[in-house]
Amino acid sequence: MKTNTQAKVLWLVLLMWPVGMLAQEQADKWTPEFSMKFKNVGGTAISPDGSLIAYVVREPLMQGEKSEYLSHIWLASSDGQRNFQFTQGDKSCSNPSFSPDGEWLAFTSARDGKKNQVWLMRVYGGEAVQLTKAKNSVGGYAWSPDGKTIAYTMSDPETKDEEKAKKEKRDVILVDQNFKYNHLYTITVAKNDTGEHDGKRLTAGEFTISSFDWAPDGKTIAFSHAPDPRINTAFSTSDIATVPSDSGAVTQLVTWPGADNSPIYSPDGKWLAFISDGGSPQEIGLGDVYLISSAGGEPKKLADTHDRSASLIGWDQKGANIYYSEFYRTTRPIFALPANGGAPKMVANAEGLFGSPAFSQNGERMAFSFQSIDKPVEIYTSPISKMQMQQISSVNSDIALPPMGKTEVLTWKSPDGLEIEGLLTYPVGYEKGRTYPLILNVHGGPAGVYAQNFTGGPSIYMLQYFAQQGYAILRGNPRGSTGYGKDFRFANFKDWGYGDFEDIMSGVDKVIDMGVAHPDSLCLMGWSYGGYMTSFAVTKTERFKAASMGAGLPNLISMVTTTDIPNYLVAHMGDEFWNDYETYEKHSAMYRIKNVTTPTQVIHGANDLRVPFTQGQEFYVALKRMGVPTEMVVYPRTPHGPREPKFLMDVSGRIMTWFEKHLNRTRPAAPEVPEKTME
Question: Which residues 6+ apart lie within 8 Å of 224 measured at CB?
Fold first, then answer.
């Protein structure tokens, strides 16, 4: 059945409730509570003819005992005249995908239990129908080109013996053994004569699948796979293979050393585009675009992208270009890379961040999320041929913004001449000629980047809240950051805490020279690698009156043998620590801790595997025994960053209290979330 655009538009006019003009929510000033009102918007999908756009809205639930997120799918006409909430209920629904004929919308949800399953609902409305009954949660999924089948991934379920051992409390964990691999399955959309959906398992064995794509003729599925499901393995080793979609032998296509990922078929099925480090493992991070014949052969590298860290989106309708996105300094545009080897060109660019891009099958329209420094995220659409952004959602538009602290992009020179870029947010109500306390905020990664995203939204560091309290905030992108090219990203190899320290401190000096920051009222905060830099900086300077280390790693020797990504750390240090103990010690704050006099707060998640909890504990205990003012804040149930909205809302208030205490300014009220003493 072909899509009937006119009927669909008529249905939208008759049945969709208009969004209408809602009374605007108003606040007089920025607080963590107010920033939590802004919802996350993304997960974009567009119908084959471009007439409908689905997107996901995620909002925090914090009433009473709840501290969780709820996601639901919204559906809009591409002219933006009508949009409404498509899924309902107290169970999240996400990952929307239109059927090839545009009549159905698939999505994943655990609405009928604890496991994510694939559900189907007609775009005209009606009841959702559960398609899969997977024993474990469905991972990724995709429609076949003819719309008759859906392929999905699922991790291996427990055996009967394992289930029995768990019930009997004999479920001993054997580390790095008995992996549960992620494999590929298919299921028919139509029911068979017995009223069931026919399903097949396509792959098995000691490998785990990370992504896959259907061939245009529906006969083959290409997929990337790694030897085991550990994240550390994926950094180092993954390959690309194919399997017949009706089951059969797996054929290996790309088996280079290093990481080969994200295969996507060309429209004619003759080529596969994929991301690779080119057969030379690069755990620091390298993602070039390659082509290989779908029949096999030697891969061909396409032109370098700006940052050489591309994320593939798909091919254009004619097979002439591959769409991708990556950071470009402090923005994240959408690019087209010619399949003939030509230089990339921007398809969508603006001062802000594009996200979740989707392209209609007819090659005429795209949909995406977009946010900028002073505008929260919404969904937009545009013709592909010419960028003409049209906003179609109004999820956050009904929130009236209090006066904001202005944010601008700065550039400065590090002492060795390297150009550094960053973002400076001024205090709310900034008065030229008056100096203010300055917070230096260091990003994670180290290959993270501070970009032109909305500064009022919820995050670990609520920027406009700090600006409201009279602080300027500098967010620098030192060497090692993404968005500035491969050489810049690799420039902190065996140099953590040295060149990057000079980069961010020279930025502090620039803001002081601008007459914005008071040199005797400096504070420092950062999460993950930003926490590492916080710990290292307070061993090198006494310029900061207070610091807050979030999920920091002050001891690289104990870190490398306890983190779940040791390869990444070893790649930056150049060798294993037992072969080069001196380098690890040189770049570890713990071996310089006698130098610390700065009052330093330590924040950590109790269940952090990326930067283990003991990293924060080491620093806190040492500071306490030295008599340096310190406190440790631990968030239970928390991995490498808050996942519960009440905890997310709590962080900035605690940091503010710490800074105010040691700057001898008026101290704000303590956060309302109760503290829990470590046992």
Answer: 209, 210, 211, 212, 238, 239, 240, 260, 261, 262, 263, 274
